[in-house]
Please model this.
Amino acid sequence: MTPVRPRARAAEVPGLRRPVAPMLAAPVDAVPEGPGLVHEPKWDGWRAIAFRDTDGVYLQSRAGRNLTTYFPDITRAIRVAIPPGVVLDGELIVWERGRTNFAQLQRRVTAGRALPRLARECPAHYVVFDLLADAGGQVILGLPLSQRRARLEQLLADAPGQLTLTPQTSDMRQVTDWLVNWTVAAGIEGVVSKRSAGRYEPGRRGWAKFRTRIVTEAIVGGVTGTISSPETVLLGRFDRRGRLRYTGRTHPLTTIQAVELAGLLAPPRLPRRGAVAHPWPEPLPASWSGQLERPEPLRYVQVEPSVVAEIDADVAFEHGRWRHRVRYAKGRPDMSVHDVPLLLGEGEDPFGTPSP
Model:
C-alpha cells in the first residue's frame, strides 16, 4: 500500500505522538482459559489507530502508514462524536449483506475519484477495542484494560453506528458461540484474548489470537521450485462450469512433505488440438495474489491438475481465494479431483460441497 500524505497536517493535541506501534497478539493453538482473561472477536479488517487532533482526525495503519484519505466517512464520524485528544485502537471493516467484506477495504485504495461514491454505497465501520489516550490527550496506557474499557464504553455511549465498541466476554460459552456461528455468519477470523489487568504495551505481543481454521481439500495446479523439489503449492478448485480456478498458495513445504508430493506430481499432458495445456497463465499475474504492496508476477511450474491436497486454512476466503497462505497437510492419492468441493459463488459455503 502506498502511503498517502495529507495536504495539511492536523494540529496534534499534547499526549501520544504518532506513529504509535500498536499492541499485538501472538498466535495460539487454542483459546486460553483462566481467571482474569477476557475475549473479543478477531475482526477481518484493517487495524487502525485513530488520533482525534485539535482540528481533525488522523488514521494510522498497523505499519504506521496514513489511511486518513481513504476513510472520509470514518474521520467525519470521529470528528463529530469524539473530543480532541482521544486516541483509539480498533479495526476498520466494511459490512456487506451482514458479513465483513475485506475486498471493499482494498477498493478504497484504488478508488481515486470514485472514493466519495464508494464511501456512500459501502460505508466503513470502525470497531473500537481500546483507548490509548483520553480527552485532552491524557495518556492512559498504564491503566489496566478493565479501566480503559470502562472509559471507552462511556466515550462511545452516544457515538454514531459507524463507531462501534467491540463485544467482550469472559464466558467461554459466548466464545464458543462466536467461533461456531459468527465465523460463517459475520466473517470474524477468530478470537483475541487479553488480561483484564493488563496495560497497553505498544509493539509488544502481549495478547493471544486464535484463528478459526478448517481442514479441506484443493487441487494442485502448480508449484514453485521444481516438480522434483517443490517449495510451495498453488491450489485450485473447479467452478460449476468445470474450469480450474486458482484459489491460493501454501506456506513452504517441509522436506518430508516436498518428497511425498514430488512422487505424485507430473507435468501437464499434451493438449488436444484447440485446447490449452494448462488453465492458468505463467507467470501467475500479480493481481491474483491480492497483495497491495509491491505485487509481482509469480514464476511457477505448471503440473497436471490430477493431485488432491489436504490443507489447513483459515476462514479468510473471499472472491474465490484464500487471502492468507494455507498449510499443506498431505497428498490424497485416494481421492479424485472430482471429490474436491466446488468453487462456489459469493455467499455460498466454500468448504463442504463436492463436485458431481
Observations:
- DSSP finds six helices and 18 strands in the chain.
- Residues 24-211 form a domain with the D-amino Acid Aminotransferase; Chain A, domain 1 fold (CATH 3.30.470.30).
